[in-house]
Specification:
Strand content: 15-25%
Helix content: 25-40%
Distance between the termini: 54 Å
Largest sheet: 9 strands, mixed
Length: about 425
């Protein structure tokens, strides 16, 4: 029998402790910021019925990128490629019990079978932030301000990113003004969504195959389209009044999913080293009604962890993180293990993260082991420490040592 490969499945990641500690530091920053806005966290299983996505989604994702299979009961199941349909299903299930408006967020892992590349994997984590139950632009404004606040929470400034904003209502009006029927309009929006990823000449050829008049060329000349633009410009001016100057009108922003009904937006990194869309979202007022009942107005966005980490790395904004314990308790001999365990229990009761040596290594080698593991402090527990209830705590980075009572060790390390 051949040996099993140690490689992970293509397009997914293994998170070793240091890697996962960074992810958790990022997630915690996101959670803390959203808590300030009164948003509550929810979650759900990654398994969903396949029809949930086939009813109202992105045709390319549904047909080419979903992990869909038949379970042992003959049911077609999909590993969730996005969270918004799950959110809509959950809200529809308990809509009579839930007090609107809802301010919810989640940090699920999502799955898409696509070609792994920079910024895209087959599995990733994604922050989803949604406000349901408010129909007017106050909700649109809050969601975009929160998207701005989340990046600012890591130290990003308005010069580091730009928020490009459009509207499905504007795009629909433009397509009607160009005389396009429903199928041609859908084809045009799918093409427009891919514009930034295509050579200009290829886009022009594909556009000419759909329509003789580019709907975006009618924004100023058609009264209805211009009125939709003016609504967006008022919202953009309101952001500026709140001190957010990096929101701009960009009619080419579409977002790929068919369920969007109002504003749509994407946030782009402005650094040439990472010039790409980071995340986006929009309004989807009709999605909940797919499960029956009246529509529930909703607006939100999804922020993938891969593009967020790329952005934070590019701008040197990654939060500090560590997975290492704070104190390594060494043992001069195996007979000292019981005393070390007793000392560790007291220290852990103070909230200190403690690692105990279980090897037969010399104290010198234990110090080296602590340093290799990235544990900043070392103390040995022998006969003297056992009887005096003190520890000689050494800071490995400087060599500084202090003799402390067990009761004072945690405060010393935490306040250093």
């Amino acid at each position: 029998m051949s040996e099993l490969s140690t490689d992970s499945y293509k397009g997914v990641r293994d998170f070793y402790p240091l890697d996962w500690a960074l992810m958790q530091a990022i997630f915690e920053r996101l959670r803390q910021t959203l808590a300030l806005w009164g948003y509550e966290e929810y979650n759900a299983s990654p398994l969903e019925r396949a029809e949930l996505y086939e009813s109202k989604g992105n045709e390319e994702i549904v047909s080419e990128q979903t992990y869909t299979f038949e379970d042992r009961g003959g049911r077609r199941v999909t590993l969730r490629p996005e969270m918004t349909p799950t959110l809509a299903r959950m809200v529809a299930h308990k809509r009579r019990e839930l007090p609107l408006p809802l301010r919810w967020f989640s940090l699920p892992n999502l799955f898409r079978y696509e070609r792994p590349q920079r910024g895209r994997l087959r599995e990733h984590y994604q922050l989803n932030v949604d406000l349901l139950g408010v129909k007017d632009t106050k909700a649109d404004g809050e969601i975009i301000v929160i998207a701005h606040a989340l990046l600012a929470a890591f130290g990003a400034t308005d010069d580091d990113f730009v928020i490009r904003m459009s509207s499905r209502a504007l795009l629909d009006a433009a397509c009607k003004a160009a005389g396009m029927k429903a199928e041609a309009a859908r084809a045009y929006l799918r093409l427009l969504d891919k514009k930034d990823k295509m050579p200009g000449a290829d886009f022009k050829v594909a556009l000419d195959a759909i329509t003789s008049t580019d709907p975006l060329a009618l924004i100023e000349s058609d009264k209805r389209v211009r009125a939709e633009k003016e609504k967006l410009m008022k919202l953009i001016e309101a952001f500026k009044a709140r001190g957010i100057a990096n929101v701009v009108f960009d009619p080419s922003i579409v977002r790929g999913f068919d369920y969007y009904t109002g504003i749509v937006f994407e946030i782009y990194d402005t650094d040439p080293a990472n010039s790409r869309a980071l995340f986006g979202g929009g309004r989807y007022d009709d999605l909940v009604s797919l499960f029956g009942g009246e529509p529930v107005p909703a607006v939100g966005f999804g922020m993938g962890d891969v593009t967020l980490v790329d952005f934070l790395t590019t701008h040197d904004l990654l939060p500090a993180s560590t997975s290492a314990p704070e104190l390594y308790l060494g043992t001069p001999s195996e007979n000292d293990l019981a005393a070390a365990n007793g000392a560790a229990e007291m220290l852990r009761a103070s909230g200190l993260r403690v690692f105990i040596n279980l090897s037969a290594k010399s104290l010198g080698d234990q110090v080296k082991d602590a340093d290799r593991r990235g544990i900043p402090y070392f103390a040995a527990v022998g006969d003297e420490e056992k009887h005096s209830h003190t520890l000689r705590v050494k800071r490995l980075s400087t060599g500084e040592e202090r003799s402390l009572s067990l009761a004072d060790v945690a405060a010393h390390i935490r306040n250093a």
